[in-house]
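Whether sequence alone determines local backbone shape is best considered at the level of individual chains. In the encoding step, the backbone of a single protein was reduced to a row of integers, each denoting a local shape. For completeness, the protein is quoted in full, as a sequence line and a line of structure tokens.
***
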Amino acid sequence: MASRDRRFTEDKTVLCVDMDAFFASVEQKTNPRLRGKPIAVIGSQGRTVVTTASYEARAYGVKTGMNTYEARRACPRIIFVVGNNARYTHTCREMEKIFLRYTPDVEVYSVDEAFLDITHSHRLFGGPVAVAAKIKEEVRDLFDIPCTVGIGHNVLMAKLASDLGKPDGLNWIKKEDVAGVLDPLPVDELWGIGKKTAQKLEKMGIRTCGELGRAPASLLRNKFGIYGETISCMGRGELGRAVEPTQGETEQVKSVGHSITLPADVTARADVEAWLLRLSDMVGRRVRRHGLMGRRITLTVRYSDFETVSKRVTLDAATSDTHMIYYAALKAVELLNIKGAVRLLGVSVSQVGEDHGQMHLMEEDRKRRDLLGAMDEVNNRYGDGAATWAVLRGRAERKRSRAGVISPAWRPTGVRNVQLK
């Protein structure tokens, strides 16, 4: 046992602060006439889905990801509210200031969720429960919206405590209670275990976390590879992951991407190419902003029947050049042989590393680098699309003002911070 990974033996005191129906709660606070009513936050595009539903709407079965027709069918009295990205991101930044009063070890995991490692600071404020209560009180006093705080000895158990404590709760799963909590719990209740993994586990006769924790690690390893060892530990309430503070932008970036559900299905190749150029431009700007380069370009296509396919293209050398990203996406289009009406497009860059200032020997390459730098400056100052490519003025760019709701994965710092103007 001496060789066991120390990450699983070093207990921490971790909080998971999860905002309850965040976007909907913010809208109800902003407009008191919406309080107590079933509302759903949606994007401003012609075709959109529910991003967040209030608890009043959830009582009727309205869920995130439903289209407006499905939501209306479930709840005829539902009120649709177009999301306000700036309002949500401002609230997230202000909440981070609250968290930092209690510990410097704050990981803003998403726009509505954060992890706090208070191992070395909670005694200054009266203990873990006192810290959690103070945070709930400050969030309520400042924003008049509810949050749930979970406490655990690691990130996994703090997250589970939060999930089980919703809404507007304060829940502590102490280490001595972990086995009792996990034993009857369905495996897909654990953070990080999705439906597909749960289905595979069920075929193996594993339905609860208790069964998962007791299953032979070798059996899980044979089925899932190295991930089998991870979920084996998770079944016992262990997770080899520490709180990763977002202050200082220390996160290890694995990929940078954008996707968009198109305002209307497109079939013309020229329209697909125009949208891909816009997406490539957005991805390229973020990659350059953070001094990164990537070698692998992934194209994602969702058809009108919701079939989703993707194709990867690996470049000979890493790049942050919008056009290199775009040309790789076009190559992926050829490889996929896209047929039929396209509903969604996505472009991402992976195999990411730091840009150490690559020298360009060709005059054409230097001119393109300078042009991209100038465009970045204009767009950063005046907003996305202030400087763009001529082809976009006639197609996709006409619709750029019809923004969707920000992704819940947004962060106030780092590469996941999509700048809003």
Confidence is low (pLDDT under 50) at residues 1-9, 395-403.
